[in-house]
Design goal:
single chain, mainly alpha, 14 helices, 3 strands, globular
């Protein structure tokens, strides 16, 4: 009898035990730590020239990471269904927040107004990052509410159309094409998982490719005096044609990648970061990784992202309910699309567009909201384990 009571108490303790997916957490912490090292290496020269402090960018990124980790831990310890009630509010708030960049609270940097100054805190927040998180939450909630109707053509069209107003605001108001593409990509991936009808997505993919090919053809066949985006496309096709202007950043990034070889020049030994490569600590940090750590370092970083995405896929497949699974799918899509686009831009696989490498590139807003998303994933994973132990 005493043994039965002891066994019952042990089972009860197991049912209330807290759990963290330490594999996922370790990968994220590794990427953050590696990112700090590379940010310092890539930015120390420029930071000293501009601010007389070689660790200027490192300190700012470290502050954002600490805040993000605190928010991640808090989010991970809150049941993820708690956020479901704020889905519509988040969608509306993100739509309202984006035009705020045009007010006196807006912050202009590198010729674009994409940030909002938070009064009394000393931090700048990018509304596009808020919109990505809110879009994941809203679409996950909508999929659950629609149920089987999401598989119908009407449900499919509704799910695809919903992100367009937010993506349009981001592109038209903040001139941030990459974030608009990421939001649309997140939506497409979540709809695909919720309604895996290959025919619809093949048609959609072919349509996008045809439109992209048509745009490139019109730019190439024109007189060469297009707008900013046209210049980016021409520089992508032939960066040597304008090596001092549109093609400068791309060429310098390719020089960095090529000069790294197999094992690189060594940590801190990059030449391109010495005022040759613009945004070396931000959008182009992958090229500095290639130059200093070579192909070996680049492949190692890619493998870490693959492991991160694989771990999220396992969590999504074993989630306790559809809402949790869709949340993880949205976060997985966000990280995967952003990483792929960043590496594609750096290697000149696609036209140049400003986009950061998740967890590694310099950028406070990006890393903070990515860590909040990781907190949601950890929250879903924690509930899986509690359900299994029960």
């Amino acid at each position: 009898m005493a043994a039965q009571r002891t066994s019952h108490k042990r089972r009860k303790k197991e049912q209330t035990e807290y759990f963290f997916d330490y594999s996922l957490l370790f990968i994220v912490l590794f990427l953050l730590g590696f990112g700090l090292v590379m940010i310092y290496s890539a930015s120390s020269y420029e930071a000293f020239q501009e601010y007389k402090d070689a660790a200027y960018y490192l300190k700012k990124q470290l502050t954002a990471i600490v805040i993000g980790l605190v928010m991640m831990i808090v989010t991970a310890n809150i049941p993820y269904h708690f956020w479901e009630r704020f889905a519509l509010l988040g969608y509306i708030a993100s739509a309202i927040l984006i035009p705020v960049v045009l007010t006196p609270l807006g912050v202009k940097s590198h010729g674009a107004r994409r940030w909002i100054r938070v009064p009394g805190v000393g931090l700048n927040v990018q509304p596009a990052e808020v919109a990505k998180l809110c879009m994941i939450l809203f679409l996950a909630t909508l999929v659950c509410k629609m149920g089987k109707s999401v598989r119908t053509m009407k449900g499919f069209i509704l799910m695809v159309i919903i992100p367009f107003p937010i993506a349009g605001e981001i592109y038209l108001i903040t001139k941030n094409l990459s974030s608009a593409i990421i939001i649309l990509g997140i939506a497409v991936l979540m709809v695909f998982v919720a309604s895996p009808d290959y025919k619809k997505f093949v048609i959609m993919g072919v349509g996008v490719l045809v439109l992209a090919a048509l745009a490139v053809f019109l730019v190439v066949s024109g007189d060469g005096e297009g707008g900013f985006r046209s210049g980016r496309i021409l520089a992508w096709l032939n960066p040597e044609s304008d090596p001092q202007n549109k093609g400068f950043q791309t060429l310098q990034a390719l020089y960095a990648i090529g000069s790294g070889g197999i094992f690189g020049k060594g940590l801190g030994q990059s030449m391109q970061k010495l005022s040759f490569l613009p945004e070396s600590q931000n959008d182009m940090i992958f090229s500095i990784i290639c130059e200093e750590l070579g192909m070996f370092g680049a492949i190692a970083v890619i493998l870490m992202f693959i492991m991160l995405l694989w771990r999220m896929m396992v969590i999504a497949n074993n989630a306790g309910d559809l809402f949790g699974a869709m949340l993880v799918v949205g976060v997985m899509g966000h990280i995967a699309i952003q990483a792929i686009l960043n590496i594609a831009v750096v290697t000149n696989t696609i036209p140049n567009t400003g986009i950061s490498l998740p967890f590694i590139s310099y950028g406070g807003s990006s890393v903070m909201f990515l860590l909040i998303e990781i907190g949601l994933v950890l929250s879903v994973a924690r509930r899986i384990q509690l359900k299994e132990l029960a």
